[in-house]
Amino acid sequence: MKKLLLLCAFAATGIISFGQTTYGDIRTQLRLLQDKPMVLPNSTPVYHNVRQNNTSKSLRSQRSLLNSQRIGSAGNLLTIIEGVCNQMDVIDSLNAVMFIHRNDDVLFAGTNVSQYRIDQSTDRGNTWTSNIGPLSTDPLIGNTTGPDYYFGRFPQAVLWNPAGNNTASNVKVVYNGTYHNDNGSNTGSWAGQIVGRGDLSGNAAVFNDHLNEINGGHTSIAGGMCKGIPGTFWAINQDFSGTFASNDQITNGLIVEKGVWNSGSGDVDWTETTIPVTFAQYDASGQGTYNGTAATSFNIAFDPSGRYGWISCLGDVTQDADSVYDPIFWKSVDSGATWTGPIHVDLNDIQGVVSAMNPNLSLNVTGGSIEPATLNPTTAFEADLSVDANGNPHLLTTVGSGTEYSIQDAGYDVWDITYNSNNQSGCQWYGIHLAKINTLRGTFSSDAPQQTEDNRPLISRSPDGNKLFFFWNESDANFLGSDNNDVPNLFGRGVDVASGKMTQLYNFTGGDSLWGGQTETLLGGVFGGSIFPEVSQTCLVNGGNYNIPIVFTQVDYNNISGGLGSSVNPAAFWYVNNMNVPASDFTSPIDQVAPTITLNGMDTVYVHVNTAYADSGATAFDCFDGSITPTVVNVPDTSQLGVYYEMYIATDAAGNSDTVTRVVFVGDIPSADFNFTPTSQANRIQFFDASSNYPTTWTWDFGYQGNGSSLQNPIFTFPAINDYNVCLTASNVFGTSAQKCRTVSITSLGTAINDVDLDASIKVSPNPTSGVVNLTFTSNATPNFTVSVYNVLGQEVIGANNYHAGTTNVSLDLSSFNAGAYFVKIQSNAGTVVKNIVLTHSK
């Protein structure tokens, strides 16, 4: 299983990456893969348009190769490993693009890594000015001599254009970054925010900073920085009790951070509001104490107008026995003045989530046995949030089988969990299924602690809020031979909420010479995959294309020797300016989920031959199309005895279908009959039921002092040489047969033997069964035997398999067969036993 580490905010992921000792070194490495020369001066990023010598094609849609250019750099990965932090923003009307990161104290001697810098472009990301700053210059920031410590990490920033401004250089940069107060002694904690403002002019005189303690120093890492109504800025944090030395990592609620532009001071005034929340707790350390909180990936976002706001996290607020992560939301309809929540969205109630899950056994082996997939849905531990033009949230996350706040290695699905109050009753919360994936977590650095990252869910949105672009990382599990996400490609899909259409599934990086993850059919890029990508919350619109600004991360740019890069060495950031999605690509219906169809009444019914059959039907429902009338296949003919598998098919407007089957027995009162044969003991007789019309119960009278049996195929030992009148009656739901009697003549008596009475020693469970049935032998003297399975037509559906004496359990999987009655035949030299089994496939 993939276990949650509470501070999964530190989760990053690992991959082979190359850095550079000098720009000439990296130029030499890259030229080996390029079809034209490159120029890499110190202040000018690199463009490339690489075509590898590889004619193989990806199994998914492969995009054009990427135009990458190196922009700024930071002293380590503690800019980028928090997926909920928003480092990039754009203003489409002024062609402005901005990226914020920590300082590179190797490149800029005499500075410290805790300071922040920005990279900016005023021509839609075509050319860049990098490493502007530092924005934060307070001498307390990064000061290692104390007595107070302010070590800034995880910067976020947005662009704000004051009313009336038409010049990109005057666009304001508003930033917010978390600081901690630990001096290396492991006694500190997250304590507050470094906040400030600047603009895109690069003029150091307009930069400033403030050191704001949050919630008395009981806080965590702020995420989700975004804009609301004009001049209002937001971030979300946690009321968090953990310290770097403590095993107790408890989240007690939300901290909503709000910034308002103060036109008088030309600065931003920040305030905080705490919203208490009780999350489930669990034993994170394995020491028998509840020291972890089931809550992670906190985010906040507003619609384009700034009126409708949503806060989200992944967690458990129900205190129930599921022990899984679900999406949790808070909502504002008054521009963030008040918040309603928590709103718990149970993934079991989202149409299509459970049916899409992989039912196969987990790859995880615990205690020598394979652990079955629970099919109890849980999110993974990362998500991103956006709000569309209609004020509805979109939470992008990975879903799989869960238990004990872990996710199993059994295959995963990428979902957009969203809301629409106009949908049919019961479907206000619904899911858009984006892809099936097979890998989850990768490792992207060699130093301890290693930085890991899951699928890195990211969302960008068109300026009008009608189109959303979803991204995630996935590796080729067939190439890796595991579910590790160590060589990922960046996949994505667009959704248009106005037209109800979505795009195909894209592989944005497959085959790229820098950022391609190696697959069975594509060579990997120089940097080993799409490492720590970051997209702008809002995209650019270039004619008929939606251009999504994106940055990838080069881990440890000083390491040219290959192998996993170090997370404590400098990291470089590369901007891609041609990640485009054409408007013409939105052609597929959003509805990718099959309708939910359920049987009315019983899933197995009995009809007397030559009587009318009252079909109780089935009900089908789709979150996009409402009620659907199913079609019926294989209607039973009640004039003919037999077993019918009546199928109901429901198909929605998008062409998605689901089926459900009812088993209909058309029968009559049984006609009792039987045969018998001696066993190895002369006075010990095996009886075989030969009754017609599918009896379900049997009553035997062996003609001696009231001895009898209710087994279908009993064995009886007669006490003396004599003739015995043995009788059988058989019953089913239609009635009881007339008694059938035969004379059994015992002509000699055998000596006592140790043969096992198989019939009495075999237990069948569960019966009825939905798939797997177990035969349990209660005696340890079981002889050699064979097991085979027949349907009601007498056809062998599972051939005879041999089992050695002493076998105590046999498991049979009937899940691939149609629902109905089956007969299991157990045969040995002690006789033959036939057991009835009823197979159901209930919805």
Q: What is the element layout, followed by pairings?
A:
Layout: E1 2-3, H1 23-31, E2 61-62, E3 68-74, E4 88-91, E5 96-102, E6 116-121, E7 129-132, E8 151-160, E9 172-180, E10 190-199, E11 210-213, E12 223-227, E13 232-240, E14 251-262, E15 267-276, E16 281-282, E17 292-293, E18 295-302, E19 309-315, E20 326-332, E21 340-344, H2 353-356, E22 365-366, E23 369-370, E24 377-387, E25 393-403, E26 406-407, E27 412-419, E28 429-437, E29 442-443, E30 452-453, E31 458-461, E32 467-474, H3 477-480, E33 489-496, E34 501-502, E35 506-507, E36 534-535, E37 540-542, E38 545-547, E39 550-554, E40 571-576, E41 580-582, E42 588-589, E43 596-599, E44 604-608, E45 618-622, E46 626-628, E47 631-633, E48 642-651, E49 657-667, E50 674-678, E51 684-689, E52 697-701, E53 708-709, E54 715-717, E55 722-732, E56 735-736, E57 740-746, H4 758-761, E58 762-765, E59 772-777, E60 785-791, E61 796-803, E62 809-813, E63 820-828, E64 831-839
Parallel strand pairs: 2-35, 44-49
Antiparallel strand pairs: 1-26, 3-40, 4-5, 5-6, 6-7, 8-9, 9-10, 10-11, 12-13, 13-14, 14-15, 16-17, 18-19, 19-20, 20-21, 22-23, 24-25, 25-26, 25-27, 27-28, 29-30, 31-32, 32-33, 33-34, 33-35, 34-42, 36-39, 37-38, 38-41, 39-40, 43-45, 45-46, 47-48, 48-49, 50-51, 51-54, 52-53, 52-55, 55-56, 55-57, ...
Q: What does this protein structure show overall?
A:
By secondary structure, the chain is mainly beta. Strands 2, 31, 32, 33, 34, 35 and 42 form a 7-stranded mixed sheet that branches. Strands 1, 24, 25, 26, 27 and 28 form a 6-stranded antiparallel sheet that branches. Strands 52, 53, 55, 56 and 57 form a 5-stranded antiparallel sheet that branches. The protein is elongated and about 115 Å long. The two termini are 28 Å apart. Residues 1-64, 363-368 and 751-756 have low confidence and may be disordered.
